[in-house]
Design brief:
Three copies of one chain form a homotrimer. With 143 residues, chain A is α+β, with helices and mostly antiparallel strands. Chain A is built from three helices and eight strands; from the N terminus they run E-E-H-E-E-H-H-E-E-E-E. In chain A, strand 5 and strand 6 form a beta hairpin. Chains in contact: A-B, A-C, B-C. Chains A and C meet through strand 1, strand 3, helix 3 and strand 8 of A and strand 3, strand 4, helix 2 and strand 5 of C.
Amino acid sequence: MNWFQKEISLKPRGRGFHLVTDEILGQIPEIKKIKTGLMHILIKHTSASITLNENCDPDVRSDMEKYFNRTVKENEPWYDHNSEGADDMPAHIKSTLIGSFLTIPITNGKLNLGTWQGIYLCEHRNHAGIRSVVVTFFGDESV
Amino acid sequence: MNWFQKEISLKPRGRGFHLVTDEILGQIPEIKKIKTGLMHILIKHTSASITLNENCDPDVRSDMEKYFNRTVKENEPWYDHNSEGADDMPAHIKSTLIGSFLTIPITNGKLNLGTWQGIYLCEHRNHAGIRSVVVTFFGDESV
Amino acid sequence: MNWFQKEISLKPRGRGFHLVTDEILGQIPEIKKIKTGLMHILIKHTSASITLNENCDPDVRSDMEKYFNRTVKENEPWYDHNSEGADDMPAHIKSTLIGSFLTIPITNGKLNLGTWQGIYLCEHRNHAGIRSVVVTFFGDESV
């Protein structure tokens, strides 16, 4: 049984949905040592989120951004939490709707995702900095 | 410490929310060997999702399907990702709203769910085939 | 490798979003024994949910409650599942939108959350009792 845990940074990105599978995997080469196991990712923020979705057509990512902006609007007259900017309370709601963590199976040293699945960083603030992510992976060692 | 990992298939179903607890458990009899542990399930698709919800009244499942169809509409004029059918972009959004994976505790060889909880396969396409799921379970061995 | 699993109770609360990080941690002092690992929490109900979000301003929690009440309305004419009260079918939908479980990294005997992150119990019923939660944590032992 092997355990790895690393806090990694994802570079700052504009508001929207971004494919970050390769940026994450590039920072955890030790995953190759796991034969059968799981990778867990937590984003340590409440105004950004992570999800799995389509890894090919960038229109899926921009349609996703449009959907969430229409569903969780800025400047609702009934928001009381307004002190951190018009994009902040919507960012908190999106974070709970989408989620702050993922767990993905590892098989023979690789993430066992579907052909069309990738990891999205969902950035809900207009001007965000680096996003911190804790990656934990564990399982049976490769022979 | 025991690890099991299996890719299993869920039979094709019509669009809607379906209770699949027994179909999954029937394919992983080895779960009985785990005294204290966790089961993780990932659906390897971006147009179907999985969740836990009420396992008794089928009206909950059909009301859920109606809710998500009203909240994530087909044929929105602002969708750019249209090439795979009117049900495709809504399916991607529903998949992120609902989620692609579950982790459930195992206690004495059984899923430790609430009395009223079951696993739903949420099929968002009108005409879908078999859905592939990776099931990973691990924990302390039963004596 | 250490495994702990405990079923704990969260005291009854009114409908709304409630910060429960300390109530959970107070019931699992054994977490200090884990150097590198994960904590998993499952809420064994289909009309309440759990999420991570902002741990400071209570307005975030009340705005969240307002958002979900506006998005998942009571008394929709198309609901068929009405026998358990006007708040019940909305509670099931919120439970799937928000989620029934969390997994959080443990580092040096503590939850490795962001500075502003806390665990919310999201109570969707008007008059709920105690909520049962299964907490499972596991990982490498502290030296």
